[in-house]
Amino acid sequence: MNVRVIDLGDEKYVELRYIYIELEGTSIASSRVIKRSRSSKGMLAEEIFTLLICDPAFSEIKGGEKKRYDLKVTIGLFSENKDGEKSSVEYSTRLPVYVYSPPVYLEIDIVAPSTVIEKENFTVMISIKNIGDYNITESGVRIQGPIVVYGADMQLLGQLAPDEGKQALFTVKAEEKGEIIITAVVWAINPAGFNLTRSRDVVVKVKGMPKLELYANTTQGRLKLYGWLIPSRPFTTIILQEKQDDEWISIASIPIDPSGYFEYTIERPAIGVHTYRALWPGDEDYSSVSSEYVNIFIEKTASYIILSASTTTAKEGSTIVLKGTIRPSVSGTVYIFMDCGDGWKPAGYATVVDGEFEAKVIVKGKPGSLCRFKAVWPGSDEVLGSESNVVEVKVERREWYSQLPQLLQEISLPLSIAIVLLIMILIVRRVIKRGRSERV
Question: CA-CA distance, 382 to 374, in Å (whole number)?
Fold first, then answer.
């Protein structure tokens, strides 16, 4: 700023007392006390003022626009004329100043899982980048939506130079299943103080978390695995897995009934400790889930017997052959039982060799009756006993000639006695007759 004396007029000299500068409509101003005098034309003072163009009023100027302000300059002068009269005077002038609010250009990205589980924590990352040509003096981000935020829901990111980016991480959880919208509200303040606000959304699908329960019990060497999926998801399946050598092996896929119940029976599990778990793969509304591990000890393994007869019809009193197989392969004695209408009764036994046996039994039912046969194995230290399937044999009447040997056998003793008695009678009668003859 230059103050020059152009014409003193009647004044003997002029003295510069102060200079005051202000940008009207703002709080920007500067003043300086100066005491310089001059009694002729020429330069009175030359001063340099530096003004910081920063004021809350500029925040109303949108980015990329400018606004006119008046720069008012006031000087205070003191003078004395030739008659010794003194006076003070102020002079003011205005200059137009245009304040430009730099534009703000932001790149905003919000990253969240596409699918989450209700009431489980997940992370949302919000990134912003200054892609403009001017500095951003302050920036920040707030997260919004139907979520619970752990910690503050707002983070300050500070200044951003051109091409500089920063990130904010939020840990949140959703309380209800369904689709939710998470919003990132980002603000950035340019050098003029203008606050630019932008937002970005992301849609997240929230799946329900079901409960999968698995239980196990053993009866007669058979292992029953059962449980419930809560809530029920009918027309879907449960996958059962067994841990073998540190690896999970799928053993069955089981349908779920309308109540959510499922069960599966393993007929002959091996002796030892078994570990199982159940898996449900999930669907559109609920997430996949795994049950807790179930450990169960099998002390004895179950056995089974397959029995067959050599015929399905037999004559009364005839002999039939029963053959059977026991698994797992065992040795010992198996007992045969028969029921021909009067209840189960022992009918014989057979020796089991390598799980195979054969027994011959007599059919003792009456003609027209049905005889049933079964085999019973009492078990061993490691294998549980079992009963076979029941085989049925229809009893038929025997022909008369086929019964002759038996009839003869049945009458042989009485006939022998009768013959002996007859012979004795004949002998006695002959002795008596001879005695009478000698008397005559």
Answer: 23
**Are 278 and 238 in contact, with CB atoms under 8 Å apart?**
yes
Q: 10 Å Cβ neighbour count for 239?
A: 16
Residues 138, 219 within the same domain: no
Which amino acid is it at 384?
L
Q: List the structure tokens of 22.
A: 């202000």
Q: What's the residue count for the chain?
A: 440
Q: CA distances (Å), 19 to each of 22, 51, 54, in order?
A: 10, 14, 21
SS3 content of the chain, % helix, strand, coil (to 5): 10, 60, 30
Supply the pTM of this predicted model: 0.60
The Cα 14–Cα 12 span in angstroms is 7
pLDDT < 50: residue spans in the chain:
407, 440
Closest CA to 51 of 34, 78, 69, 64: 69
Q: Domain range holding 389?
A: 304-396
Over residues 282-323, the pLDDT tens digits come to 999 999 999 999 999 988 888 889 999 999 999 988 999 999
CATH number of the domain encompassing residue 260: 2.60.40.10
